[in-house]
Design a protein that fits this description.
Layout lengths: L5 E5 L2 E2 L5 E5 L2 E5 L7 E9 L3 E11 L25 H18 L21 E5 L7 E3 L6 E3 L8 H16 L14 E8 L6 E7 L7 H11 L3 E8 L11 E7 L3 E5 L2 E5 L9 H15 L5 E5 L5 H6 L5 E6 L2 H13 L5 E5 L2 H10 L6 E4 L8 H11 L3 E6 L2 H13 L2 E9 L9 E8 L1
Parallel strand pairs: 4-6, 11-12, 16-17, 16-19, 17-18, 19-20
Antiparallel strand pairs: 1-5, 2-3, 3-4, 5-6, 7-10, 8-9, 10-11, 12-13, 14-15, 20-22, 21-22
The structure holds S-adenosyl-L-homocysteine.
Length: 445
Amino acid sequence: MQKNEEYILDIVDVTAEGSGVGRADGMAVFVPLTTVGDRAKVKILKVKKSYAYGKLISLIKPSKSRIDNDCPVFNQCGGCVYRHISYYAEKAIKQNKVYENIKRIGGVDIKPQPIIADYPDRYRNKAQYPLDESGNAGFYAFHSHRIIPCEDCLLQPRIFAQITECVCDWARKNDISIYDETTHKGFLRHIYIRKAQVTNEIMVCLVINGDILPESDMLIDSLLKVDGNIKSVQININKKDTNVILGDICKTICGEDYITDVLCGVKIRLSPLSFYQVNHTMAEKLYDKAKEYANPKGKNIIDLYCGAGTIGLSMAKDAKSIIGVEIIPEAIEDAKYNAEINGIKNARFICADATDAAYQLVREGVTADTVIVDPPRKGVSAEVIKTIAHDFHPQTVVYVSCDSATLSRDIKIFGENGYRLKEYTPCDLFPRTAHVETVILLSRA
Ligand code: SAH
């Protein structure tokens, strides 16, 4: 196989990143924007030892799953990968990905429960927009920090487009320079917006390479005219030469330091630095499933990687006790406050790295009936898994994961430490993107 050659390929699979896969000359060929069932003319772009990358030239026979793409920047923006196929087909792909990973990496062949999935329009409650050199808000391209301007993302609430437009206008009128990652020069880095689905409260946070926001009164006046639900305007200071979006310091320039939402009947105060599930509707369904698996009635529960306390607090009324662990201090402050405003007295929160907190709890002699873990993509360290299995020694572990590959690796390690996978449910918190969440139930053998 050579670069620039053209092939007619039948697409037989889809990668975890949403790219179609065909076969030619004994090689797998990855072709973005194709899907299972397509017969496509493909141009080879890059050839490796056992696989190659190709580009779709034309469709000879389109898959039955295809639909018309409705977004002008699909293909360019790094957000959605499935706008060209039906949501029905996307659900099947995601369900199967989770199953394949758990079988192949986790070494357990159990069929998943049906994926919990629903595709509410504009489901996200959070966006972080970088700006291009002309001061247009947008998103990064795939595997790149090239900015693709996007006026109105179809995953975001409509109001976010009005807010970004307002901020961009203000920046242009006031000659606010736009941050450039390559030179580490320029002032305005990102526009970060969050909206609480139940209360409609909105937070607007400008991430700046500086300490003070110039012409802030003008910005605040314009923002408050855009929507009366804007309850908090903040700046986040990030002067580091890094591609991490948020710095450590936030300052409120108008309104409250927080916005409040309601999740699973629990009031949740959110500061900009606290993690919060981006899809409220599906997060409630995910937490319901986690609760069913955790079976909290009368149990002592440890909630590792607890963020603002959301999962544990959703079970606190049934549980005997909840201990939440989280590394971000602002998130722990939110979690404590959230327990208080909801009248929850049986929850305690520790701000520490999961490994250190686990050892601290072991020293205190704490054990648990149920341990819930909801780690970031890299999963749980083998050290923490061993502490859970041999020191906390719970009957049940509920693992919520946004990466089924690291989840599967950890299922194997839990297996080596006496815990068996009983059941699992994929849950689509991120329709149209390549991501999928999974919640699993492990039991002590
Ligand atoms: N359970 C929460 C948050 C899940 S996201 C919810 O559903 O909303 C994962 C959380 O793990 C984040 O809040 C992140 O700050 C936290 N985290 C990341 N690394 C950690 C570590 N080493 N120790 C403890 N918490 C960590």
